[in-house]
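Re: your question from the hallway

Yes, I did run it. Sequences:
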Amino acid sequence: MPARFEPRSTEVSEPFWRATRERRLIMQWCRPCEHVVFYPREVCPRCLGSNLEWRDSPGTGTVYAFSVHYRTGSPELMDRTPYVVALVDLTEGARLMTNIVGCEPDDIGVGMGVQVTWELLADGRHLPLFEPSTGSHGDSSRR
Amino acid sequence: MGERTLRGATAVVGVADAASPTGELPNRGRALEAAMIAEALDDAGLTLRDVDGVCHVGPSTYVGSSLGLAEYLGIRPVFTEGTNVGGSSYEVHLEHAAAAIATGLCEVVVCTYAETPRGDRNRGIDSEMPLWIGYHPEAEWEAPFGLWQPMGPYALAASRHMAQYGTTPEQLAQIAVSTRQWAAMNPRARYQSPITVEDVIDSPVLLSPLHRLDCCLVTDGAGAFVLTSAERAADLAKPPAYVLGAASCHDHDMISQMPDITVTAGAVSGRRAFDMAGITTADVDVLMAYDSFTITALLHLEDLGFCAKGEGGSFVEDGKLGPGGSLPMNTNGGGLSYTHPGMYGMFLVVEAVRQLRGECDSRQVPGATVAVAHGAGGALSAMGTVVLGTREAL
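Structure:
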């Protein structure tokens, strides 16, 4: 049983996954639009142009939404429940799905500051997960 | 180009649905679909020979499902519709069929759906559709993180709605409670015993913040409707349920790509359908709003304009959605308590039509002249809104 459902990359996303081997988070940008594009695409969804480039991401953001999974439909994650699935808004504007780790589920709140951390996959790539920002005090609005 | 409206041009003239308190049906597949079509045509006073258009999407079918259905029935339709946008497919089919009839492409369209997850499990039939075939972005950007489908996207939406607007678990629970009150008056509903807000809150949290009783059922179910021109409808067996407005909109596929997880594309489809119908929320006597989860229904109430964005929680907490309330919603008991085979939108249309005909016995909303069927498909992705009305509402 693999430790994770292994993300299947495509030609266009291959640079993203290659960077994760070095624990680097990179994001695709449209040069003319000066706009971050996620998930990676062959063309910019704003201008349909293909003048795209990869830039390093600071790897910081905030929790947009989250759900503590007490149950799972993923056999490989059965022994990890409860785990936290979240949508994180990166500082540069992209929103991605991830897991929040490195804290108790009860300590997570919408709006909480997070930073990227990495989980090694069997093939040497890493999965970008997020943990509370260093010095983060959580969010007083959490429930 | 003339006035671009479908208002009053077509009507639903026949309906049928099947569900059971056991959650199981004796038939499945094409046999069940054919039985629903026969029942709906009989309800309309039409026969298969009258049918020249077919709409179909269902489980375990990817391509050409309307072809297979028509072949099974031995008919040769000149209008075919197989759009699959998940649970709202049947509202979208109705919209497209109404446009086809209004423009003269065809005259009598049948739409059917059957899915039997419980019966199939008992029979050892693996009828579950994979979430994707071949490459899908979800397999790269969502599945590795263990988002549990189909509940996960709705749990995320509920968490955001609660944080952004102060919506409480108790307010969401009230939707399940009001819906169960309606189910108690539907002898075919899966669950008919009353529940309380405490019952919902005390049920296990599966995916925070949603409890087990915030979730729809998994049951066998099937249905069909027949749509025809207003002219033809006038001579048929039952009072027509005229299509006053119909519209659809989708704004993402994966939940992680939804622009604002608290605002659905129903804000667009609802406005367009209501505008076409020339109605406001105050005109709606019965609201059939897709309730895969309590949060789904709450988002519909806001996006259709029954209350302001963010105020859905306080809007529902007085029980106004239940019997005797000011906004009767999901009077068949909904996906939460009546039936939910997987793509529930069919049952919204069927119940809306029956309410307009006055066929709903103890759960009948007295004097209903306008009913709305609002379907949701995918991961809050695709919304289809249909406004139906009696002759008085024309």
